TrEMBL record:
GO terms for molecular function: DNA binding; DNA-binding transcription factor activity. The keyword DNA-binding applies. The lineage of its organism: Bacteria, Bacillati, Bacillota, Bacilli, Bacillales. PROSITE patterns: HTH_ARSR_2. This is Metalloregulator ArsR/SmtB family transcription factor. It comes from Brevibacillus thermoruber. CDD domains: HTH_ARSR (cd00090). It comes from the Bacteria.
């Protein structure tokens, strides 16, 4: 049985909403965990665990200043996420282009059946 990797990848790290909030918070300035934890309704230990996962993914860096560690965002690993998402942008752009064509065609007066919007609207699974 293979051992699980000790490092988290970017996708695992950003999967949690708290960690995404941490990244947003640290995008503006470097902060110690005591200040960071004040922004969340959880213990400092819980915040530290989230920071550790982000650090393992390379998304945050910590540096010692006296007795505290200050954390900051390192956005470089997010390039992997951006490259992965770039492939799927073509699907979004296609839907937006279809919507733009529909709106600009002037067929919003009710003469065109709503069925033509099916290509734009997501379908519900029953």
């Amino acid at each position: 049985m293979a051992a699980s990797p000790s490092r988290h990848d970017v996708f695992q790290a950003i999967a949690d909403p708290t960690r995404r909030q941490l990244l947003r918070l640290l995008g503006d300035q470097e902060m110690p965990v005591t200040v960071i934890s004040g922004h969340f309704p959880m213990s400092r230990t819980a915040v530290s665990k989230h920071l550790r996962i982000l650090a393992e993914a390379g998304l945050v860096k910590g540096r010692k200043v006296g007795r505290e560690t200050r954390y900051r965002l390192d956005p470089e690993p997010l390039l992997e996420l951006k490259q992965w998402l770039a492939y799927y942008e073509r699907f979004w752009e296609n839907k937006m282009a279809m919507l733009k064509h529909y709106v600009e065609s002037g067929k919003l007066d009710g003469a065109e059946p709503a069925a033509s919007l099916k290509a734009v609207q997501p379908t519900k699974k029953e």
